[in-house]
Amino acid sequence: MAGLLSKERIVAKPGFNRWLIAPAALGIHLCIGSVYAWSLFNPALIKRIGVVTSAADDWTLKSVVWIFTVAIVFLGLSAAIAGKWLEEVGPRKVGTVAAFCWGGGFMIGGFGILTGHLWLLYLGYGVLGGCGLGLGYVSPVSTLIRWFPDHRGMATGIAIMGFGGGAMLAKFLIGPILRSYYKAPEYLGTMDSVNLVTDAGRRMTEIGGQLKEVVVVGANDVAGMLVPGPEGVYLAGTGTVGVAQTFFTLGAVYFVVMLISSFSYRVPADDWKPEGWEPPKETEKHGMITQHHVDIDQALKTPQFYQLWLMLCLNVTAGIGVIAVAKTMVTEIFGSTLPDIVDIEFAATYVLMLSLFNMIGRFFWASISDFIGRKTTYFIFFAFGILLYLSIPYIAQQVSVDPAVKWLVLFYAATMIIFTMYGGGFATIPAYLADIFGTKYVGGIHGRLLTAWSTAGVLGPLAITSLRENSVTKAIQGLVDKIDPAVFQKTFGAGVEQLDKLVEAKTVTISKLMEISPEGTIDPTPSLYNQTMYLMAGLLFIALIANLLMRPVSHKHHMTEEELRNA
Fold first, then answer.
1. pLDDT, tens only, 430-478
2. What is the set of domains in the chain, with CATH numbers?
3. Distances (CA, A) of 147 to 140, 150, 442, 479, 559
């Protein structure tokens, strides 16, 4: 088996068609790219017990968003460690290990969901699955750069396009699989027909002489149901969202596809180059493509590495937090103002479109960078991105006052363009690294640079969930101040003085408060993400400066002819 996975075993014979590597790279990246569809799991994971809406003991959105964060952290850490290993053992062995980690991570995570142990979901999907992400991510990139030295941007765009498209593929898999395993909880009747009491913030009713916990679905909650059902009272702990079974199914599918793709890898011989192609001089291609090589460890001593690290980190931070809550965000901004259009299916399609434009951007911008240069491409990402992020709070403010479809169209357009550039940043960075540091150790250098992704994987979701949580707290308090305390008492079975407990038990939410707010009260939900968008625009401004200061690496860092012969 060791010989079958060895690097020597996969050196291509003369005449090998280099385009055959593209399907293998796409196969692995489409599987691991499903991590971008994590937000499709969020609605089910936070309703694991309540099923139709969240119960008191259900996991919170913040707790499950962090699973995505852990996966991205371990993606970067494993890529940094495996980058040098990849250069030694080749992409087939690395891809095979990635298949076991990613598929196995889903299996362990599924058991965590079944048993209610959140830590198992973190360990399986987050830690083990994250290692599979990192190993699977780096394995095809350096391979394709070596097969396509004449089109570096396009080559990395091909590989990383699959990662962006993984969420699009996952959308077609996750939704139908979830629905196939879904079972509605026991329906007890309308709210008026069920005798409800409130105990420590929880809604309860007597069944067979015992108080049982229930969940209440109001008019504003119907749009958020995984499978449409009637308003009213449901018995918590009955039925299933089907998310554990979905994890088991996806884990098996991804493992098989990744294993087949890994065994399809081939690497070019050391002296191979495309027929009729000669490397460009360093003065060509905007003066930013070197013909020298920089060792992995030496690259860490250059300012260019840290400039690129900062650029990737800030660009990813700006986009990854939005990806983690994309489905929730579009529902919260437009669900209350345009409920006939923005329902749970619309939100799922929105995630699909984000994935599609993410994928398109990866190939489009990476290919364009071959002609306009990597530095110019990143200038466009950051300068235009600042304006687009700043447009979202304005749109949210306008839709609260004037719930017109035009604001949804503008939001859709702005976010789709943002994600073409977000994906383009990922796809173009390996080519930028090859331009700056040469191609010999680009896989290892790229792996270490991906620690920026790990950092962003923490900063992005932390920023968006913390700022959103702060905005929710302020919004709830603002609405409660406008509501008659007697009406509040009648609706929730407890007084305003118990607000904190009611919020913690998910009995009081913005949507439920809006049902009893005075006429003319503006729903604060669309503005929950305003602070986040202002922060993201500021981060892109810092990245813009780092890119403008980019210069070629000093000759003192280049490998000598003797070092290259001994490498």
1. 889 988 998 788 888 988 998 998 888 788 878 887 888 888 899 999 9
2. 21-183+240-270+299-482+521-566 (1.20.1250.20)
3. 11, 9, 13, 60, 22
